[in-house]
Amino acid sequence: MPTILGQNQYGKAENRVVRITRDGDTHHIKDLNVSVALSGDMDDVHYSGSNANVLPTDTTKNTVYAFAKEHGIESAEQFGIHLARHFVTSQEPIEVARIRIEEYAWERIATSDGNSKFIGADEVKHSFVRKGQETRTTQITFDGEKWEVISGLKDLTVMNSTNSEFWGYVKDRYTTLKEAYDRILATDVSARWRYNWTGDEQRMPNWEKSYEQARKHMLQAFAETYSLSLQQTLYQMGSRIINSRSEIDEIRFSLPNNHHFLVDLEPFGLENDTADGAVYFAADRPYGLIEATVLRDGVEPKIPVDMTNL
Ligand SMILES: O=c1[nH]c(=O)c2[nH]c(=O)[nH]c2[nH]1
């Protein structure tokens, strides 16, 4: 039976583009997931393998990053319109461009003090938390005598768009990483903390308040730590909780290092450094994974090492 080609489209899907604009030391994030699908006169590539009409998907990816740098991202709609128009008007064979964009919403992390580092006295200028996507968790164990309550959260996504460095590390023959003096630090916090409550009804913690406060202290420590490594930030987050919440004795973190790479736009004559309007590729894997327990001095660690990601 003869066959014919039906509907077809192609392009680069899920280009993760992050653009940071700097208004003095107040930063603004645009965080998009952009998928390009092009269609038009593409019979030949399917029938004969001739690529004469094919703009590479790699080029569509580069266009997304270059447009983010050159034209900015005012809104997802404006950005998508600009890209779609470009593909259809600049390439004869392309008749239809479909640009799908997901935009991830970020809120500024609120802080407790009115230090001048902060906007409106209570928000950090370069620290953000992804809107409402975390999951709260708890595990209660009772053997008829002893209680153990381990609570926590996962998927609390946070980002500092500056105040993070990483340098001075070991270098061997396989090391290619460049030292960073101003990088994005982003992670999805998974944390489990253990309460020291022993079952006395009179001394039961206010669980709601405790969760809210642990979360708050963790976010504030993330925002306020000038970070030399994610390990150092982790320790600050843990110790802030232990020092401010007497009902919590131990906390274990699992923190992926959500790498953001400055895109090389040199080939397109665009300078892209960490100054205003920097455009990053937000990689999803592989990622560094930094895990540690922070304990009140003198207590026994009891949170299982592999529990953090449950
Ligand atoms: O904060 C970091 N800690 C590391 O251990 C590490 N390793 C790496 O490649 N980048 C980073 N960043």
From TrEMBL:
<feature type="active site" description="Charge relay system">
    <location>
        <position position="57"/>
    </location>
</feature>
<feature type="binding site">
    <location>
        <position position="57"/>
    </location>
    <ligand>
        <name>O2</name>
    </ligand>
</feature>
<comment type="function">
    <text>Catalyzes the oxidation of uric acid to 5-hydroxyisourate, which is further processed to form (S)-allantoin.</text>
</comment>
<keyword id="KW-0659">Purine metabolism</keyword>
<feature type="binding site">
    <location>
        <position position="58"/>
    </location>
    <ligand>
        <name>urate</name>
    </ligand>
</feature>
<feature type="binding site">
    <location>
        <position position="231"/>
    </location>
    <ligand>
        <name>urate</name>
    </ligand>
</feature>
<feature type="binding site">
    <location>
        <position position="57"/>
    </location>
    <ligand>
        <name>5-hydroxyisourate</name>
    </ligand>
</feature>
<feature type="active site" description="Charge relay system">
    <location>
        <position position="12"/>
    </location>
</feature>
<feature type="binding site">
    <location>
        <position position="183"/>
    </location>
    <ligand>
        <name>urate</name>
    </ligand>
</feature>
<feature type="binding site">
    <location>
        <position position="57"/>
    </location>
    <ligand>
        <name>urate</name>
    </ligand>
</feature>
<feature type="binding site">
    <location>
        <position position="257"/>
    </location>
    <ligand>
        <name>5-hydroxyisourate</name>
    </ligand>
</feature>
<feature type="active site" description="Charge relay system">
    <location>
        <position position="259"/>
    </location>
</feature>
<dbReference type="GO" id="GO:0006144">
    <property type="term" value="P:purine nucleobase metabolic process"/>
</dbReference>
<dbReference type="GO" id="GO:0019628">
    <property type="term" value="P:urate catabolic process"/>
</dbReference>
<protein>
    <recommendedName>
        <fullName>Uricase</fullName>
        <ecNumber>1.7.3.3</ecNumber>
    </recommendedName>
</protein>
<feature type="binding site">
    <location>
        <position position="183"/>
    </location>
    <ligand>
        <name>5-hydroxyisourate</name>
    </ligand>
</feature>
<feature type="binding site">
    <location>
        <position position="257"/>
    </location>
    <ligand>
        <name>O2</name>
    </ligand>
</feature>
<dbReference type="InterPro" id="IPR002042">
    <property type="entry name" value="Uricase"/>
</dbReference>
<feature type="binding site">
    <location>
        <position position="166"/>
    </location>
    <ligand>
        <name>5-hydroxyisourate</name>
    </ligand>
</feature>
<comment type="pathway">
    <text>Purine metabolism; urate degradation; (S)-allantoin from urate: step 1/3.</text>
</comment>
<feature type="binding site">
    <location>
        <position position="231"/>
    </location>
    <ligand>
        <name>5-hydroxyisourate</name>
    </ligand>
</feature>
<comment type="similarity">
    <text>Belongs to the uricase family.</text>
</comment>
<keyword id="KW-0560">Oxidoreductase</keyword>
<dbReference type="GO" id="GO:0004846">
    <property type="term" value="F:urate oxidase activity"/>
</dbReference>
<feature type="binding site">
    <location>
        <position position="257"/>
    </location>
    <ligand>
        <name>urate</name>
    </ligand>
</feature>
<dbReference type="Pfam" id="PF01014">
    <property type="entry name" value="Uricase"/>
</dbReference>
<feature type="binding site">
    <location>
        <position position="166"/>
    </location>
    <ligand>
        <name>urate</name>
    </ligand>
</feature>
